[in-house]
């Protein structure tokens, strides 16, 4: 048994061909917490979630959900959890109400109880006036809210959300965030995956940043951003300049430097005071600066700091795309 709502112990998933989708992932989630997995597409977020909800068998490792073991107690776990998958599974030919009714009967919920519960949930997610509308007429945001309602029919203790706002417009995303916050206020523990920086920052009590199947850092959003240790200055330069390397080496005396393409990031204590010094050095080394800016640390800066590259919100490399497609076919 576990004192945590979710406890993962070295979960690993290796697919045929040696594709290591998840590599020794360990973390703990307290009861009543919103815990987020933040990372790019193909990082292992969905595979980890799949193992936790007992639909993907781990290659090795262990986990407990609400005190039950994923290997021995799969049926008990499924009674305790609600799941919203990344790919919509709602029947578009049925109405919203009918979708919930069919799902509730499949869970064995008493009909009278189910009818009352459906009305409550449709009100909760703001879909009461569309209860008798065919789902094919719903917007993307409405469908995602209906899927949350469906996941809550049996009053789960833990809700798993896989990319809950993927593809939604900003307004629909904000509505979904309100629903998630309200659920959490009612005591539901929430585990969500996302590759949206703002979503993780605004919603999650704690975040694990995952990349290439490994957790690279974990903590409260504020704690992760404090890891950076100061302001972040971005300097876009011409790599063809002969003194580029010397210029970058000199910048490393000012702060922590990382080079990404033709852009240099420098972490400093006080950006406004440092900017004039950077211009002086650029002039000294005959470096052409095409752009310079600074920001307070963001989760994107954290991802850059711990991985050496930016979190790509909407695109993946061709290699990662092939990796993701192969993994999806194998599930």
Terminal-residue CA separation: 28 Å
Radius of gyration: 23 Å
Order of helices and strands: EEEHEEHEHHHEHEHEEHEHEEHEHH
The tally of domains stands at 2
For the largest beta-sheet, the strand count, sense and barrel status come to:
6 strands, mixed
Oligomeric state as shown = single chain
Q: What would the principal axes of the Cα set say about the shape?
A: elongated
CATH architecture of the largest domain: 3-Layer(aba) Sandwich
Examine the coordinates and then state which fold CATH places here, giving the name of the CATH topology of the largest domain: Rossmann fold
Q: How many DSSP H or I helices? A: 12
Helix content: 25-40%
Structural class: alpha/beta
Widest sheet: strand ordering: 6-7-8-3-9-10
Give the amount of beta strand, in percent.
25-35%
Task: Name its key features.
331 residues, Rossmann fold, four-stranded antiparallel sheet, 12 helices, alpha/beta, 2 domains, Alpha-Beta Plaits, 14 strands
How would you describe what is shown here?
With 331 residues, the protein is an alpha/beta fold. The chain has helices spanning 45-52, 74-80, 96-106, 111-124, 140-151, 170-185, 197-203, 221-226, 244-251, 271-284, 299-307, 318-330; strands at 6-15, 19-29, 34-38, 60-65, 68-69, 81-84, 158-162, 189-194, 206-211, 214-219, 231-237, 256-260, 263-268, 289-295. Helix content is 38%, strand content 26%. The strands form three sheets. It has a six-stranded mixed β-sheet with strand order 6-7-8-3-9-10, with helices on both faces. The protein is elongated. The chain starts with 5 loop residues before the first strand and ends with a helix.
């Amino acid at each position: 048994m576990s004192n945590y709502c979710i406890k993962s112990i070295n979960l690993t998933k290796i697919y045929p061909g040696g594709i290591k989708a998840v590599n020794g992932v360990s973390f703990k989630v307290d009861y009543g917490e919103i815990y987020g997995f933040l990372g790019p597409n193909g990082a292992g977020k969905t595979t980890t979630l799949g193992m936790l909800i007992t639909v993907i068998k781990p290659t090795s490792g262990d986990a407990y959900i609400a005190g039950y073991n994923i290997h021995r107690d799969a049926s008990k776990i499924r009674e305790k959890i609600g799941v919203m998958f990344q790919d919509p599974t709602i029947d578009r030919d049925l109405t919203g109400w009918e979708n919930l009714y069919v799902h509730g009967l499949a869970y064995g919920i008493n009909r009278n109880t189910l009818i009352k519960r459906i009305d409550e949930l449709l009100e909760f997610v703001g879909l009461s006036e569309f209860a008798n509308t065919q789902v094919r007429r719903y917007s993307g945001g409405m469908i995602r809210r209906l899927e949350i309602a469906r996941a809550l029919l049996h009053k789960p203790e833990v809700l798993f959300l896989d990319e809950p706002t993927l593809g939604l417009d900003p307004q629909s995303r904000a509505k979904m965030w309100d629903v998630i916050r309200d659920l959490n206020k009612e005591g539901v523990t929430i585990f969500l995956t996302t590759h949206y920086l703002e979503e993780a920052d605004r919603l999650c009590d704690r975040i694990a940043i995952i990349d290439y199947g490994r957790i690279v850092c974990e903590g409260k959003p504020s704690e992760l951003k404090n890891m950076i240790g100061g302001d972040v200055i971005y300097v876009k330069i011409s790599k063809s300049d002969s003194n580029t390397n010397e210029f970058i080496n000199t910048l490393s005396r000012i702060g922590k430097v990382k080079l990404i393409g033709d852009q240099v990031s420098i972490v400093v204590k006080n950006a406004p005071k440092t900017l004039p010094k950077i211009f002086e050095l650029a002039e000294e080394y005959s470096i052409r600066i095409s752009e310079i800016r600074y920001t307070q640390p963001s989760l994107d800066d954290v991802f850059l700091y711990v991985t050496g590259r930016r979190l790509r919100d909407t695109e993946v490399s061709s290699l990662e795309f092939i990796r993701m497609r192969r993994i999806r076919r194998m599930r």
